[in-house]
Amino acid sequence: MEGTSLCLSFVILLLQCSPSVPVTVSTTKHKVEVREFSDAVLTCLFRTERDQSPRIEWKKRGKDVSFVYFDGQFRGPFEGRATISGATVTLQRVTQEDAGEYRCEISAPLDSVSLGETNVTLKVLVPPHTPSCQIPGSAVTGSVVQLRCQDQQSIPPATYSWFKNNMPLSQPRQANATYVMDSRTGVLEFRTVAKEDTGRYSCLASNGVGPAKMCEGKHMTIEDVNITAIVAAVVVVCLVVVVCGCGGVILHRNGFFSRHRGRSFWISQCHGADHISSQTLHTTEDTSNVNYIPPPQEPQDFKHTQSFML
């Protein structure tokens, strides 16, 4: 009897000393993925130690923390399009603006640990949209040609496949293939395009969320290089260069590009040679209409007399 009483007392002591369970918060799914315009369920489960009426709050984290559910009602853009059961929230007709990280907070003031929380990340999936395609209408043989396809709205990002004349183009496996195709970027590149590549091309975007979408096809024509036209053009250009060069040389030799201002001329006169500048020449030319009176000449006998006297 004494041993039994001792064991019972020991068990009671352990129960009294063991800590009570504080408020705990958890979720069944930390990452939720739903299609755009469908409903998203953000699960939040909690258990309290003593408090039977804890405070429930939902917040959305972004650049700033905003309230989703507070003081018993939904706030902001969630007002009128969300419901709550216990602490689990259902968001109706979600869009890309609703995607992000949410936090469920349970506050139990009567518990030894009064606050608990859990996080749920919402990802809104968007099916493919009709991709934009860039397909050249024509090209010459031997050149590098790129066809581009892109859908910027699909989530997750779309993958791309190309069609020629409504038949899918297979991914080339040979190193010497004439084209390469990147299903991630949507680029179809012909390294050396040939006449056989002429056809109607279209691109299909898919991401597994919704039906795949294809852009409108466009015809691409590959033409041979016109060697005759290129040679003729080169000959014409060469002739023009030669003619212009010869003309410039002839004009330069004829003094067309020389500067005459300030040059000097020697003009022979009956009484000797006077050195005059071009400015004086121009002045003389400008006064050509005025009656010119030559200077008086000394008599020859007088000159001889002066020479004799000297």
TrEMBL record:
GO biological process, one term: leukocyte cell-cell adhesion
Any coiled-coil regions, as ranges: none
Signal peptide region: 1-22
Keyword NADP (UniProt): no
Every Ig-like domain range: 19-121, 128-228
Gene Ontology cellular component list: cell surface; plasma membrane; protein complex involved in cell adhesion; tight junction
Keyword Membrane carried by entry: yes
TM region positions: 227-251
Keywords, alphabetical: Membrane, Signal, Transmembrane, Transmembrane helix
InterPro entries: Ig-like_dom, Ig_sub, Ig_sub2, Ig_V-set, JAM2
Protein name: Junctional adhesion molecule B isoform X2
